[in-house]
Amino acid sequence: MAERDGPEVIGRRVQQLRTERGLTQKQLAEPAYTPAYISTLEAGRVRASEPALRHIAERLGVAYEELATGRPAHLATDLRLRLTDAQRTLATGEAEVAAEQYAVLLAEADTHGLVAEQSAALLGLGECALETGDLETAQERFEASERRLGDAPLPQRVPALRGRAVSHYLAGELRYACYLFESTLDELNRTGMHDPDALLLLYTGVIAPYMDMGAHARAAQAAEFALALAPQVGDPALVARMHRSVARTMIAEGRMAEADASLAKAAELYRQLQIRTELANCHWMRGYLYAQNGELERAENELREAQVMLSAKRAALYTSQVNVELADVLHRRGKSTEAAVLLHEVLGDLSPERGAVHSAGAHRLLGIIAEDARDTETAEEHYVRALSLLERAGAAGDLADLCRLLGDLLRRTGRVEAALDAYRTGLGHRTAPGTTTLGPAPAQPPL
């Protein structure tokens, strides 16, 4: 039940509605109350009981909720239905149209002070901004959504917290993304708030930054917890996202058949739910899987399918990331010129604050292509840029390999001391991946 307005506000509302309907105070009061009571109520000098307000609402021909709060009857229900419609629009990949719907809903929720609906609309606007690659706006929207919920139980705030963490991850702030995920997981598990949906959302989300930071053991453990939680979760979209994320840890462990099966489950759920962007991401991940397994033609086909689906929906950041993966496959298939053209296009869309890890991947691959063409100066420039991006992001998972490439290049050009420095840097990242940037592991769920 929504909180009632104060006596003065309700009094003015009663007087306005009575006057509009041409009723006297006596007509409004009968038969249960007196004209003097109505006069006192309209003056705001008495807090009417619920039975009295229900009697007056019936005489005025309005719903009790509208009289007590000023909100049209069933407004909250109507807003929630329209929020679901906006969510469906976003699922089809129409992020800009969905953002317009969410903005209208936010304005209505603000007007009537509907806090839960305000938070949900801001959450949707954050998801729209993620889709279009506007990471700064996404962070602002998710933070505002969390603020609206105030002191609400932590599980209710988890979707906004997860959104914040993902937007920081995509911006290349891997350490902070992990901190947000881990601190929230720790609080949920230590305080006994074991909400399966909230936990699955967080364990699924933390896998990608763990992998990029080289914390493979933690990623595998998060995947294990996610798989154990999945049977308790009723939201098929959340389960599908879990299958897609878990596949990445399976690929890293060489469990290709299991990863493929996990991606097939995710893709089938997304087809049923008609969530187009996430289905495109399944093609993307499948392309990555096939590339890792040496099936380059199948990898190219899957990545091109993802590219077409994402670019059609103007998901610019995700399209650029897919293009980096596609360029790698093209290079390995002997199409280095086409790969280089694609990578230079991509670098115009990526930056240290927007897709830093994939931006580093583009520079790394351009360095390899330049080396193949015996342009060592250009190759070194690209390797150094990639190294700077990865160090800034804390992406230890790729740093060791990049240091090896740079060290080999420096050694071949006669700079042995510089090569040794590069190798030592790489070994430092390889020795204990992730442990220098992550604190103690969060408390575990009671599975």
List the defining traits of the structure above.
Lambda_DNA-bd_dom_sf, TPR-like_helical_dom_sf, TPR_rpt, 23 helices, Helix-turn-helix domain-containing protein, DNA-binding, mainly alpha
Polypeptide structure, described:
Helices cover 77% and strands 0% of the residues. With 447 residues, it is mainly alpha-helical. Helix 15 packs antiparallel against helix 16 and helix 17 runs antiparallel to helix 18. It starts with 6 loop residues before the first helix and ends in a 16-residue tail after the last helix. The relative contact order is 0.07.
Q: Summed up, what is this model?
A:
Helices cover 77% and strands 0% of the residues. With 447 residues, the chain is mainly α.
List the helices and strands and how they pair.
Elements: H1 7-20, H2 25-29, H3 35-42, H4 50-60, H5 64-69, H6 75-91, H7 95-112, H8 115-132, H9 135-149, H10 154-170, H11 174-190, H12 196-212, H13 216-229, H14 236-252, H15 256-273, H16 276-292, H17 296-312, H18 316-332, H19 336-347, H20 356-372, H21 376-393, H22 396-412, H23 416-431
Helix pairs in contact: 6-7, 6-8, 7-8, 8-9, 8-10, 9-10, 10-11, 10-12, 11-12, 12-13, 12-14, 13-14, 14-15, 14-16, 15-16, 16-17, 16-18, 17-18, 18-19, 18-20, 19-20, 20-21, 21-22, 22-23
